[in-house]
Design a protein that fits this description.
Length: 502
Protein backbone atom coordinates (compact mmCIF):
# COMPACT_ATOMS: atom_id res chain seq x y z
CA UNK A 1 0.00 0.00 0.00
CA UNK A 2 1.30 3.44 -0.82
CA UNK A 3 1.84 5.90 2.00
CA UNK A 4 -0.81 8.41 2.97
CA UNK A 5 1.75 11.16 2.78
CA UNK A 6 5.02 10.91 0.91
CA UNK A 7 7.46 13.83 0.87
CA UNK A 8 10.54 13.56 -1.32
CA UNK A 9 13.47 15.97 -1.21
CA UNK A 10 11.56 19.04 -0.09
CA UNK A 11 13.68 22.20 -0.19
CA UNK A 12 12.58 25.69 0.79
CA UNK A 13 14.78 28.74 1.20
CA UNK A 14 14.05 32.14 2.69
CA UNK A 15 16.37 35.14 2.42
CA UNK A 16 19.47 34.05 4.32
CA UNK A 17 18.07 30.69 5.55
CA UNK A 18 17.54 27.22 4.15
CA UNK A 19 14.43 26.32 6.11
CA UNK A 20 14.11 22.85 4.56
CA UNK A 21 16.89 21.03 2.73
CA UNK A 22 16.11 17.82 0.85
CA UNK A 23 13.70 16.50 3.45
CA UNK A 24 11.96 13.20 2.79
CA UNK A 25 9.32 11.79 5.09
CA UNK A 26 6.26 9.58 4.99
CA UNK A 27 3.17 8.90 7.08
CA UNK A 28 1.02 5.81 6.59
CA UNK A 29 -2.59 5.18 7.52
CA UNK A 30 -3.16 4.98 11.26
CA UNK A 31 0.38 6.05 12.06
CA UNK A 32 1.41 8.81 14.48
CA UNK A 33 4.64 10.46 13.41
CA UNK A 34 6.19 13.01 15.75
CA UNK A 35 8.24 15.76 14.11
CA UNK A 36 10.85 17.15 16.48
CA UNK A 37 13.53 19.78 16.25
CA UNK A 38 14.90 22.94 17.80
CA UNK A 39 13.24 26.29 17.35
CA UNK A 40 13.82 27.30 13.75
CA UNK A 41 14.71 23.77 12.59
CA UNK A 42 12.07 23.95 9.83
CA UNK A 43 9.14 21.95 11.22
CA UNK A 44 6.38 24.50 10.58
CA UNK A 45 7.76 25.26 7.13
CA UNK A 46 7.62 21.56 6.22
CA UNK A 47 4.05 20.97 7.37
CA UNK A 48 2.90 24.22 5.80
CA UNK A 49 4.30 22.91 2.53
CA UNK A 50 2.12 19.81 2.91
CA UNK A 51 -0.94 21.98 3.47
CA UNK A 52 -0.07 24.24 0.52
CA UNK A 53 0.65 27.31 2.62
CA UNK A 54 4.31 27.36 1.72
CA UNK A 55 5.57 26.74 -1.80
CA UNK A 56 8.70 24.58 -1.72
CA UNK A 57 11.45 25.49 -4.19
CA UNK A 58 11.79 21.85 -5.16
CA UNK A 59 10.72 18.37 -4.15
CA UNK A 60 7.61 16.29 -4.42
CA UNK A 61 4.48 16.03 -2.27
CA UNK A 62 2.23 13.00 -2.74
CA UNK A 63 -0.96 12.47 -0.80
CA UNK A 64 -2.65 9.07 -1.23
CA UNK A 65 -0.35 8.57 -4.18
CA UNK A 66 -1.45 11.71 -6.03
CA UNK A 67 1.09 14.37 -6.86
CA UNK A 68 0.03 17.69 -5.29
CA UNK A 69 1.22 20.92 -6.89
CA UNK A 70 3.18 23.32 -4.73
CA UNK A 71 1.02 25.80 -2.88
CA UNK A 72 -2.29 24.08 -3.63
CA UNK A 73 -4.21 24.24 -0.35
CA UNK A 74 -7.50 23.31 -2.00
CA UNK A 75 -5.98 20.06 -3.29
CA UNK A 76 -4.58 19.25 0.15
CA UNK A 77 -8.01 19.74 1.75
CA UNK A 78 -9.66 17.72 -1.01
CA UNK A 79 -7.25 14.89 -0.26
CA UNK A 80 -8.36 14.88 3.36
CA UNK A 81 -5.65 16.91 5.07
CA UNK A 82 -6.60 18.89 8.17
CA UNK A 83 -4.21 21.21 9.95
CA UNK A 84 -4.00 22.86 13.36
CA UNK A 85 -1.66 25.83 13.11
CA UNK A 86 1.01 26.89 15.55
CA UNK A 87 -0.37 30.39 15.57
CA UNK A 88 -4.06 30.86 15.91
CA UNK A 89 -6.01 31.61 12.77
CA UNK A 90 -9.21 32.49 14.60
CA UNK A 91 -11.21 35.69 14.13
CA UNK A 92 -11.14 37.29 17.60
CA UNK A 93 -14.41 39.24 17.40
CA UNK A 94 -16.49 36.27 16.28
CA UNK A 95 -18.10 33.58 18.40
CA UNK A 96 -16.77 30.06 18.85
CA UNK A 97 -19.49 28.66 16.60
CA UNK A 98 -18.89 31.25 13.89
CA UNK A 99 -15.19 30.48 13.90
CA UNK A 100 -15.60 26.74 13.67
CA UNK A 101 -18.03 26.87 10.74
CA UNK A 102 -16.21 29.72 8.98
CA UNK A 103 -15.76 29.07 5.29
CA UNK A 104 -18.29 26.25 5.19
CA UNK A 105 -21.44 27.43 6.93
CA UNK A 106 -24.64 25.35 7.06
CA UNK A 107 -27.33 27.35 5.26
CA UNK A 108 -31.05 27.81 5.20
CA UNK A 109 -31.77 29.43 1.83
CA UNK A 110 -29.27 32.24 1.52
CA UNK A 111 -28.88 32.67 5.27
CA UNK A 112 -26.55 30.94 7.67
CA UNK A 113 -28.51 28.40 9.69
CA UNK A 114 -27.35 29.55 13.13
CA UNK A 115 -29.26 26.96 15.07
CA UNK A 116 -27.87 24.10 13.02
CA UNK A 117 -24.36 25.53 13.23
CA UNK A 118 -24.57 25.73 17.01
CA UNK A 119 -25.88 22.16 17.25
CA UNK A 120 -23.09 20.97 15.02
CA UNK A 121 -20.49 22.59 17.27
CA UNK A 122 -22.04 21.12 20.41
CA UNK A 123 -22.07 17.65 18.83
CA UNK A 124 -18.49 18.00 17.62
CA UNK A 125 -17.32 19.09 21.04
CA UNK A 126 -19.07 16.10 22.67
CA UNK A 127 -17.72 13.65 20.13
CA UNK A 128 -14.10 14.56 20.87
CA UNK A 129 -14.54 15.39 24.54
CA UNK A 130 -13.19 18.90 23.98
CA UNK A 131 -15.51 21.19 25.86
CA UNK A 132 -16.19 24.68 24.48
CA UNK A 133 -18.83 27.37 24.97
CA UNK A 134 -20.35 27.72 21.48
CA UNK A 135 -21.54 31.29 22.14
CA UNK A 136 -18.42 32.79 23.70
CA UNK A 137 -16.53 35.45 21.78
CA UNK A 138 -13.08 34.14 20.91
CA UNK A 139 -11.09 37.17 22.07
CA UNK A 140 -12.49 36.79 25.59
CA UNK A 141 -11.16 33.26 25.91
CA UNK A 142 -7.84 32.09 27.34
CA UNK A 143 -5.34 30.70 24.85
CA UNK A 144 -5.91 27.10 25.94
CA UNK A 145 -9.55 27.36 25.01
CA UNK A 146 -8.70 29.01 21.70
CA UNK A 147 -6.45 26.06 20.93
CA UNK A 148 -9.34 23.67 21.51
CA UNK A 149 -11.40 25.64 19.01
CA UNK A 150 -8.64 25.33 16.42
CA UNK A 151 -8.58 21.59 16.94
CA UNK A 152 -12.34 21.22 16.62
CA UNK A 153 -12.25 23.31 13.46
CA UNK A 154 -9.67 20.98 11.93
CA UNK A 155 -11.66 17.89 12.95
CA UNK A 156 -14.98 19.17 11.65
CA UNK A 157 -14.48 17.60 8.24
CA UNK A 158 -13.48 13.95 8.41
CA UNK A 159 -9.76 13.99 7.80
CA UNK A 160 -7.38 11.24 6.66
CA UNK A 161 -4.22 13.09 7.58
CA UNK A 162 -4.19 15.41 10.57
CA UNK A 163 -1.30 17.82 11.01
CA UNK A 164 -0.87 19.31 14.45
CA UNK A 165 1.73 22.06 14.83
CA UNK A 166 2.43 22.31 18.57
CA UNK A 167 -1.16 21.85 19.67
CA UNK A 168 -0.22 21.23 23.27
CA UNK A 169 1.99 24.27 23.87
CA UNK A 170 -0.83 26.23 25.47
CA UNK A 171 -2.85 23.40 27.03
CA UNK A 172 -3.02 22.40 30.67
CA UNK A 173 -1.75 18.93 31.68
CA UNK A 174 -5.33 17.70 31.92
CA UNK A 175 -6.19 19.05 28.45
CA UNK A 176 -3.04 17.50 27.05
CA UNK A 177 -4.05 14.08 28.33
CA UNK A 178 -7.43 14.50 26.67
CA UNK A 179 -5.92 15.61 23.39
CA UNK A 180 -3.43 12.74 23.34
CA UNK A 181 -6.40 10.42 23.84
CA UNK A 182 -8.17 12.03 20.88
CA UNK A 183 -5.06 11.63 18.72
CA UNK A 184 -4.72 7.94 19.62
CA UNK A 185 -8.39 7.30 18.86
CA UNK A 186 -8.11 8.99 15.49
CA UNK A 187 -5.07 6.89 14.66
CA UNK A 188 -6.84 3.66 15.60
CA UNK A 189 -9.62 4.73 13.28
CA UNK A 190 -7.03 4.90 10.47
CA UNK A 191 -6.14 8.60 10.43
CA UNK A 192 -2.48 9.39 9.87
CA UNK A 193 -1.14 12.02 12.26
CA UNK A 194 1.85 14.31 11.87
CA UNK A 195 2.46 15.85 15.24
CA UNK A 196 4.90 18.62 16.18
CA UNK A 197 5.74 19.16 19.83
CA UNK A 198 8.60 20.20 22.10
CA UNK A 199 7.36 18.02 24.93
CA UNK A 200 9.29 14.82 24.82
CA UNK A 201 7.02 13.07 27.27
CA UNK A 202 4.17 13.40 24.75
CA UNK A 203 6.33 11.96 22.02
CA UNK A 204 7.17 8.97 24.19
CA UNK A 205 3.48 8.52 25.00
CA UNK A 206 1.89 8.55 21.54
CA UNK A 207 4.35 8.42 18.66
CA UNK A 208 4.86 5.35 16.52
CA UNK A 209 7.83 6.97 14.85
CA UNK A 210 9.92 10.09 15.47
CA UNK A 211 11.61 12.20 12.81
CA UNK A 212 14.09 14.82 13.97
CA UNK A 213 15.03 17.94 12.00
CA UNK A 214 18.11 19.98 12.70
CA UNK A 215 19.03 23.17 10.79
CA UNK A 216 16.56 22.35 8.05
CA UNK A 217 17.84 18.82 7.45
CA UNK A 218 16.73 15.41 8.65
CA UNK A 219 18.98 14.63 11.60
CA UNK A 220 17.64 11.18 12.29
CA UNK A 221 14.65 8.95 12.90
CA UNK A 222 13.81 6.67 15.78
CA UNK A 223 10.94 5.15 17.76
CA UNK A 224 9.94 5.59 21.42
CA UNK A 225 10.86 1.93 21.97
CA UNK A 226 14.46 2.51 20.95
CA UNK A 227 15.12 5.66 22.95
CA UNK A 228 14.11 7.85 25.91
CA UNK A 229 13.64 11.57 26.59
CA UNK A 230 17.36 12.20 27.00
CA UNK A 231 18.06 10.40 23.75
CA UNK A 232 15.49 12.50 21.90
CA UNK A 233 16.90 15.72 23.37
CA UNK A 234 20.38 14.72 22.31
CA UNK A 235 19.24 13.94 18.76
CA UNK A 236 17.46 17.31 18.51
CA UNK A 237 20.09 19.58 19.93
CA UNK A 238 23.20 17.60 19.03
CA UNK A 239 24.56 17.77 22.58
CA UNK A 240 23.70 16.54 26.02
CA UNK A 241 20.78 18.46 27.55
CA UNK A 242 20.23 18.66 31.28
CA UNK A 243 16.51 18.23 31.76
CA UNK A 244 16.73 18.98 35.49
CA UNK A 245 17.27 22.48 36.83
CA UNK A 246 20.53 22.93 38.65
CA UNK A 247 20.31 25.61 41.33
CA UNK A 248 21.70 26.48 44.71
CA UNK A 249 19.60 27.46 47.72
CA UNK A 250 17.95 30.86 47.52
CA UNK A 251 19.58 33.69 49.43
CA UNK A 252 16.42 35.46 50.39
CA UNK A 253 16.61 39.18 51.10
CA UNK A 254 14.06 41.89 51.81
CA UNK A 255 10.58 42.11 50.30
CA UNK A 256 10.60 43.77 46.89
CA UNK A 257 7.23 42.96 45.39
CA UNK A 258 4.25 43.32 47.61
CA UNK A 259 0.74 42.59 46.41
CA UNK A 260 -1.98 43.72 48.80
CA UNK A 261 -5.66 42.66 48.66
CA UNK A 262 -5.68 42.80 44.91
CA UNK A 263 -8.94 42.43 43.09
CA UNK A 264 -9.48 42.29 39.32
CA UNK A 265 -12.10 41.09 36.87
CA UNK A 266 -11.77 38.89 33.83
CA UNK A 267 -12.87 40.09 30.38
CA UNK A 268 -16.45 39.08 31.09
CA UNK A 269 -16.46 41.26 34.20
CA UNK A 270 -16.49 38.37 36.64
CA UNK A 271 -14.20 38.44 39.65
CA UNK A 272 -10.97 36.67 38.70
CA UNK A 273 -8.49 37.91 41.29
CA UNK A 274 -10.24 37.95 44.61
CA UNK A 275 -8.36 39.59 47.45
CA UNK A 276 -4.89 38.35 46.53
CA UNK A 277 -1.97 39.19 48.83
CA UNK A 278 1.61 38.00 48.42
CA UNK A 279 5.14 39.15 49.23
CA UNK A 280 8.04 38.19 47.04
CA UNK A 281 11.57 38.69 48.33
CA UNK A 282 14.67 39.71 46.46
CA UNK A 283 16.62 36.59 45.63
CA UNK A 284 13.74 34.13 45.47
CA UNK A 285 11.61 32.53 42.81
CA UNK A 286 7.99 32.42 43.86
CA UNK A 287 6.01 30.02 41.71
CA UNK A 288 2.27 30.30 41.23
CA UNK A 289 0.76 26.87 40.71
CA UNK A 290 -2.81 26.55 39.58
CA UNK A 291 -5.12 25.15 36.95
CA UNK A 292 -5.40 27.63 34.11
CA UNK A 293 -8.39 29.93 34.51
CA UNK A 294 -8.07 30.48 38.26
CA UNK A 295 -7.08 34.09 37.86
CA UNK A 296 -3.38 33.73 37.01
CA UNK A 297 -3.62 35.63 33.74
CA UNK A 298 -5.62 38.46 35.30
CA UNK A 299 -3.26 38.58 38.27
CA UNK A 300 -0.23 39.03 36.03
CA UNK A 301 -1.95 41.70 33.95
CA UNK A 302 -3.13 43.61 37.02
CA UNK A 303 0.37 43.57 38.50
CA UNK A 304 1.88 44.82 35.26
CA UNK A 305 -0.62 47.65 34.82
CA UNK A 306 -2.46 46.10 31.90
CA UNK A 307 -5.76 45.34 33.63
CA UNK A 308 -7.70 47.58 36.04
CA UNK A 309 -7.11 46.95 39.73
CA UNK A 310 -10.54 47.22 41.30
CA UNK A 311 -9.10 47.15 44.79
CA UNK A 312 -5.77 46.70 46.45
CA UNK A 313 -2.27 47.71 45.49
CA UNK A 314 1.01 46.52 44.03
CA UNK A 315 4.19 47.89 45.57
CA UNK A 316 7.80 47.75 44.47
CA UNK A 317 10.25 48.48 47.27
CA UNK A 318 7.40 50.01 49.25
CA UNK A 319 6.34 52.38 46.46
CA UNK A 320 2.89 52.01 45.01
CA UNK A 321 2.83 51.36 41.26
CA UNK A 322 0.17 53.07 39.13
CA UNK A 323 -2.90 51.32 37.79
CA UNK A 324 -3.23 50.83 34.03
CA UNK A 325 0.11 52.37 33.10
CA UNK A 326 2.27 49.46 31.95
CA UNK A 327 5.10 51.70 30.82
CA UNK A 328 5.40 53.36 34.24
CA UNK A 329 5.10 50.07 36.08
CA UNK A 330 7.97 48.81 33.95
CA UNK A 331 10.02 51.91 34.76
CA UNK A 332 9.44 51.27 38.45
CA UNK A 333 11.20 47.96 38.09
CA UNK A 334 8.77 45.25 37.03
CA UNK A 335 9.68 43.42 33.84
CA UNK A 336 7.16 41.13 32.24
CA UNK A 337 7.41 38.05 30.05
CA UNK A 338 3.82 37.86 28.82
CA UNK A 339 1.95 34.64 28.19
CA UNK A 340 0.69 35.79 24.79
CA UNK A 341 3.82 36.94 23.02
CA UNK A 342 1.98 37.54 19.74
CA UNK A 343 -0.37 40.02 21.33
CA UNK A 344 1.67 41.71 24.06
CA UNK A 345 5.29 40.77 23.66
CA UNK A 346 6.31 41.74 20.16
CA UNK A 347 5.56 44.06 17.30
CA UNK A 348 5.69 41.69 14.33
CA UNK A 349 6.49 44.38 11.77
CA UNK A 350 9.42 45.82 13.76
CA UNK A 351 12.94 44.45 13.46
CA UNK A 352 14.39 42.17 16.11
CA UNK A 353 16.73 45.00 17.02
CA UNK A 354 13.80 47.30 17.84
CA UNK A 355 11.81 44.59 19.57
CA UNK A 356 14.73 44.05 21.91
CA UNK A 357 14.34 47.60 23.28
CA UNK A 358 10.56 48.08 23.11
CA UNK A 359 10.32 49.58 26.60
CA UNK A 360 13.54 51.53 26.47
CA UNK A 361 13.78 52.83 22.92
CA UNK A 362 13.53 56.44 24.14
CA UNK A 363 16.04 55.97 26.98
CA UNK A 364 19.81 56.24 27.04
CA UNK A 365 21.92 54.59 25.75
CA UNK A 366 19.46 53.82 22.94
CA UNK A 367 18.35 57.39 22.40
CA UNK A 368 19.57 60.84 23.20
CA UNK A 369 16.46 62.97 23.32
CA UNK A 370 14.83 62.28 19.96
CA UNK A 371 17.94 60.90 18.34
CA UNK A 372 18.32 57.15 17.99
CA UNK A 373 21.70 55.74 18.76
CA UNK A 374 22.05 53.09 16.06
CA UNK A 375 25.34 51.81 17.38
CA UNK A 376 23.96 51.12 20.83
CA UNK A 377 20.86 49.48 19.34
CA UNK A 378 22.93 47.23 17.11
CA UNK A 379 25.36 46.33 19.82
CA UNK A 380 22.53 45.47 22.21
CA UNK A 381 20.84 43.32 19.56
CA UNK A 382 24.02 41.50 18.55
CA UNK A 383 24.86 40.70 22.15
CA UNK A 384 21.41 39.40 23.00
CA UNK A 385 20.99 37.40 19.78
CA UNK A 386 24.27 35.69 20.57
CA UNK A 387 23.65 35.24 24.28
CA UNK A 388 20.07 33.97 23.96
CA UNK A 389 20.78 31.96 20.82
CA UNK A 390 18.06 33.64 18.77
CA UNK A 391 18.17 31.92 15.37
CA UNK A 392 17.82 34.63 12.74
CA UNK A 393 19.60 35.61 9.55
CA UNK A 394 20.00 39.18 10.84
CA UNK A 395 19.07 41.59 13.63
CA UNK A 396 17.25 43.64 10.98
CA UNK A 397 14.85 40.77 10.23
CA UNK A 398 11.29 41.51 11.33
CA UNK A 399 10.11 39.65 14.41
CA UNK A 400 7.16 38.29 12.42
CA UNK A 401 9.51 36.20 10.25
CA UNK A 402 10.98 34.32 13.22
CA UNK A 403 9.96 30.80 14.16
CA UNK A 404 7.61 30.54 17.15
CA UNK A 405 10.19 29.65 19.76
CA UNK A 406 12.63 32.27 18.57
CA UNK A 407 9.96 34.94 19.02
CA UNK A 408 9.68 33.84 22.63
CA UNK A 409 13.45 34.07 23.02
CA UNK A 410 13.37 37.70 21.83
CA UNK A 411 10.86 38.58 24.55
CA UNK A 412 12.76 36.70 27.24
CA UNK A 413 16.05 38.29 26.17
CA UNK A 414 14.59 41.79 26.34
CA UNK A 415 12.93 41.37 29.71
CA UNK A 416 15.77 39.57 31.44
CA UNK A 417 18.52 41.82 30.11
CA UNK A 418 17.31 44.89 31.95
CA UNK A 419 18.27 44.02 35.50
CA UNK A 420 14.90 44.97 36.90
CA UNK A 421 13.97 44.46 40.54
CA UNK A 422 11.05 42.20 39.74
CA UNK A 423 10.59 39.68 36.92
CA UNK A 424 7.04 38.53 36.28
CA UNK A 425 7.37 35.50 34.01
CA UNK A 426 4.15 34.05 32.62
CA UNK A 427 4.62 30.73 30.82
CA UNK A 428 8.21 31.69 29.94
CA UNK A 429 9.09 28.47 28.13
CA UNK A 430 5.89 27.95 26.22
CA UNK A 431 6.77 26.75 22.73
CA UNK A 432 10.55 26.70 23.15
CA UNK A 433 12.74 23.68 22.50
CA UNK A 434 14.39 21.63 25.25
CA UNK A 435 17.78 23.23 24.79
CA UNK A 436 16.27 26.69 25.13
CA UNK A 437 14.13 25.67 28.10
CA UNK A 438 17.32 24.68 29.86
CA UNK A 439 18.77 28.08 28.96
CA UNK A 440 15.74 30.15 30.02
CA UNK A 441 15.56 28.27 33.32
CA UNK A 442 19.21 29.10 33.95
CA UNK A 443 18.52 32.75 33.17
CA UNK A 444 15.62 32.91 35.63
CA UNK A 445 17.78 31.35 38.33
CA UNK A 446 20.56 33.77 37.48
CA UNK A 447 18.15 36.76 37.72
CA UNK A 448 17.25 35.44 41.17
CA UNK A 449 20.89 35.05 42.14
CA UNK A 450 21.50 38.64 41.08
CA UNK A 451 18.84 39.71 43.56
CA UNK A 452 15.67 39.95 41.47
CA UNK A 453 12.34 38.91 42.91
CA UNK A 454 10.95 36.43 40.38
CA UNK A 455 7.25 35.67 40.15
CA UNK A 456 6.82 32.61 37.95
CA UNK A 457 3.42 31.66 36.59
CA UNK A 458 3.31 28.41 34.66
CA UNK A 459 0.77 25.81 33.65
CA UNK A 460 3.60 23.26 33.73
CA UNK A 461 3.65 21.90 37.25
CA UNK A 462 7.07 20.38 36.58
CA UNK A 463 8.44 23.79 35.74
CA UNK A 464 7.01 25.28 38.95
CA UNK A 465 8.39 22.42 41.02
CA UNK A 466 11.85 22.49 39.57
CA UNK A 467 12.39 26.27 39.70
CA UNK A 468 10.49 27.64 42.68
CA UNK A 469 11.94 28.37 46.10
CA UNK A 470 8.41 28.87 47.38
CA UNK A 471 5.13 27.87 45.75
CA UNK A 472 1.83 29.67 46.12
CA UNK A 473 -1.14 27.58 45.07
CA UNK A 474 -3.87 29.65 43.46
CA UNK A 475 -7.48 28.59 43.28
CA UNK A 476 -10.56 30.68 42.55
CA UNK A 477 -8.58 33.92 42.44
CA UNK A 478 -7.03 33.41 45.88
CA UNK A 479 -3.98 31.81 47.39
CA UNK A 480 -4.95 28.63 49.18
CA UNK A 481 -1.49 27.71 50.46
CA UNK A 482 2.14 28.71 50.35
CA UNK A 483 4.64 25.87 50.44
CA UNK A 484 8.36 25.58 50.63
CA UNK A 485 9.67 24.47 47.22
CA UNK A 486 11.85 21.82 48.81
CA UNK A 487 9.16 19.78 50.44
CA UNK A 488 6.45 20.43 47.89
CA UNK A 489 4.76 17.24 46.87
CA UNK A 490 3.34 16.87 43.36
CA UNK A 491 0.20 15.00 44.43
CA UNK A 492 -0.52 17.33 47.33
CA UNK A 493 -0.22 20.42 45.12
CA UNK A 494 -2.39 18.72 42.52
CA UNK A 495 -5.16 18.29 45.08
CA UNK A 496 -4.86 21.89 46.24
CA UNK A 497 -4.98 23.09 42.63
CA UNK A 498 -8.26 21.26 42.24
CA UNK A 499 -9.65 23.11 45.26
CA UNK A 500 -9.49 20.14 47.60
CA UNK A 501 -8.15 20.61 51.07
CA UNK A 502 -4.68 19.11 51.51
N1 LIG B 1 7.94 33.81 6.29
C1 LIG B 1 9.23 33.69 6.55
N2 LIG B 1 10.12 34.60 6.10
C2 LIG B 1 11.44 34.46 6.36
N3 LIG B 1 11.98 33.44 7.07
C3 LIG B 1 11.13 32.51 7.54
C4 LIG B 1 9.73 32.59 7.31
N4 LIG B 1 9.14 31.52 7.90
C5 LIG B 1 10.15 30.82 8.48
N5 LIG B 1 11.34 31.40 8.26
C6 LIG B 1 12.65 30.91 8.73
O1 LIG B 1 12.75 29.55 8.39
C7 LIG B 1 13.37 28.81 9.45
C8 LIG B 1 12.48 27.66 9.88
O2 LIG B 1 11.32 28.19 10.54
P1 LIG B 1 10.13 27.28 11.07
O3 LIG B 1 9.05 28.20 11.47
O4 LIG B 1 9.82 26.23 10.06
O5 LIG B 1 10.81 26.61 12.36
P2 LIG B 1 10.16 25.61 13.43
O6 LIG B 1 10.97 24.35 13.38
O7 LIG B 1 8.71 25.48 13.22
O8 LIG B 1 10.50 26.34 14.81
P3 LIG B 1 9.62 26.54 16.18
O9 LIG B 1 9.85 25.33 17.03
O10 LIG B 1 10.27 27.70 16.84
O11 LIG B 1 8.22 26.77 15.80
C9 LIG B 1 13.67 29.82 10.55
O12 LIG B 1 15.02 30.21 10.45
C10 LIG B 1 12.76 30.98 10.24
O13 LIG B 1 13.32 32.19 10.69
MG1 LIG C 1 7.08 26.08 14.32
Amino acid sequence: MSALLELTNITKTYPGVIANENISLSVTKGEIVALLGENGAGKSTLVKAVFGLVRPDSGEIRIKGDLISAGDTAAAIEHGVGMVHQHFQLVPVMSVTENIILGDEPRKGIFIDKKKAREEVVALSKRYGLEVDPDAIVEDLPVGMQQRIEILKALRKDVDLLILDEPTAVLTPQEIEELLGVIKNLASAGVGVLFITHKLREVMAVADRVVVLRNGKTAGATTPKETNEEGLAQLMVGRNVVLQVDKSDAVKQGIVLSIRDLQANDDRKHTAVDGFSLDVHAGEIMGIAGVEGNGQRELVEAICGMRPRLMGSVLVDGLETPDMQPHKVHRMGISHIPEDREKHGLVASYSIEDNLVLNQFDQPPFANGWIRNSNALEQNANTLVEEFDIRTPSIKTTAGALSGGNKQKVVVARELSQNTKVVVAAQPTRGVDVGSIEFIHKQLVSARDHGAAVLLVSAELDEILSLSDRIAVMFGGKIVAILDGKDADRAKIGRMMAGLAS
